[in-house]
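Changelog-adjacent note: as of this version, every example in the card shows the full chain rather than a window. The one below runs 287 residues end to end.
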Amino acid sequence: MSEETLNRQQQLVKDYLDSLLKEEQNPYSIESALDLSASTVVDVVEMPLVAAELPKTGPEIEELDLADMEISLDAEINQTQTIQPEPEPEPEPEPEPEPEPEPEPEPEPEPEPEPEPEPEPEPEPEPEPEPEPEPEPEPEPEIAAESLKCLLVKMYGVKLALPIKYLQGAHDLNAMNLGLSTQSDWILGTYSESGEIVQVVDTGMWIIPERYEPDRADYAELVKLKGAGWALTIDSMLGSKEIEAHQINWNNNSQSRPWLLGTCMEHQCAVVNVPALLQGFNTANRS
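Full-length structure tokens:
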């Protein structure tokens, strides 16, 4: 066998082995390879051999035995068949997803500032005490357009003019049976008349207390005031007189002597303000 033929066979074997290693190509058939080899050999045998082309004998070149070649081919084929394709590398495991970062804890809300305490309402001012009712004004001096008809009496050396319109009657004091009264020292006693209790006043002690002396009093009669339950003690009755308005010097300061209506210089007497006198009696008697 020529060296060219040998090389061609070796090339065929190499191509066969290469085809086995290529997955995409069709599997190589040993029969087709042998047929191709046989046809090639036939072609080669038919050609006249030249002595120079004959292979040299000797230790340098060993004769290639076809059987041995087939065995070696079978062995190589078997070895090739046993070569299994390398397993595809397992895909690398996907990296575990990084754990989501824990959400940062929400900052605790700052405590709301405590509301400032509402200022205590200012205490309402205490209501001012109601002013005490002013005392009822004393009756103004009676200024008559006409003359005043008065009863002139004497009491502890003082001449008084009592307007007759405020008088109800007169009595002899010595003939009266007075009941004792311990209520006030300016009340001498009481008596009953027409079912009414009448209180008898120590006139001097009420009118001129600053110079009155009870031991020197000389009361002999009393004059009852109309519809009032009060009677005045007097020394004596001097008669009646009409006093003209222009003859009276009116008292403009009723605080010092509220009972004094005015004075009459012509008759040398003090005109008594009977309504103011009665008001004083009642007020003092209630206290």
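Structural remarks: Residues 3-21 form the longest helix (19 residues).
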